[in-house]
Amino acid sequence: MGKITFFEEKKFQGRCYNCSSDCADLHTYFGRCNSIRVESGVWVIYERPNYKGFQYILSPGEYADNQQWMAFNDNVKSCRTVKNIYGNAWKLRLYERPDFGGQMVECSDDCSSVYDTYKLREVYSCAVTDGVWIFYDLPNYRGRQYLLERGEYRQHVDWGASSPGVGSFRRITEF
C-alpha cells in the first residue's frame, strides 16, 4: 500500500495529514493543501469529494507547492491509490470518433505529442487493453490529467474530459 502526506502550507509546513488508503472525503483532516509528499505508491488526488472533479496523478516524490502537480488551486478533497493489477504490459487504442469510429491507432509507449506522432487533432474514444495510462490535454505532458485504467471509453466524457483534445499521454510504470 502507498503512503501520502498532505500539508496545508507550501514547502511541507503547517498542519499535515498522513494517508495510506483511499479516502473519499478529506475535508475533516485539512482545509486546504499546498504541498504533498508521496512516499510510496501512485496516487490520484481530486479537487472534490467522492473522487470527482479535476484529478492529478502523483508518483513518489515531493511537491513543495500545488503548481508542481499542475493544480489551479489548493483544493484536495479525496484521494485513491492506483493499483497495478495489469502486469508490465501497456497497450491502448485511440479513435478519432466516438464509439470507436474513424481512424484508429494502437500505442504501447509514451507520446509527447499526439498530433505530431499520429496526426490526430482529437481523440473521441479509446480502449485500454493493458496497463494504466495518463492522458494530458496539452502536448509535453502538461495541462489537465486523466487516469485511464483497463476498459473501454466510448466517448471522451467517459474518462472525465470536457473536450476530446488529447495532447499527450504516458504509461504509469512505477507503483
Question: Please, could you describe this protein's structure?
Answer:
InterPro entries: Beta/Gamma-Crystallin (IPR050252), Beta/gamma_crystallin (IPR001064), G_crystallin-like (IPR011024). It comes from Takifugu flavidus. Keywords: Eye lens protein, Repeat. Pfam families: Crystall (PF00030). One of its GO terms (molecular function) is structural constituent of eye lens. By secondary structure, the chain is mostly beta strands. The protein folds into 2 domains: 3-81, Crystallins (Gamma-B Crystallin, domain 1), CATH 2.60.20.10; 91-171, Crystallins (Gamma-B Crystallin, domain 1), CATH 2.60.20.10. The protein contains 1 helix and 14 strands; from the N terminus they run E-E-E-E-E-E-E-E-E-H-E-E-E-E-E. It has a 4-stranded antiparallel sheet with strand order 2-1-3-6, with no helix packed on it. The chain has a 4-stranded antiparallel sheet with strand order 9-8-10-13, with no helix packed on it. The chain has a 3-stranded antiparallel sheet with strand order 5-4-7, with no helix packed on it. The longest helix is centred in the middle third of the chain and has 5 residues, at 114-118. It is elongated, with a radius of gyration of 16 Å. The N and C termini lie close together (9 Å). The relative contact order is 0.16. The mean pLDDT is 93.
Distance between the termini: 9 Å
Main β sheet profile = 4 strands, antiparallel
Low-confidence stretches: none
Number of strands: 14
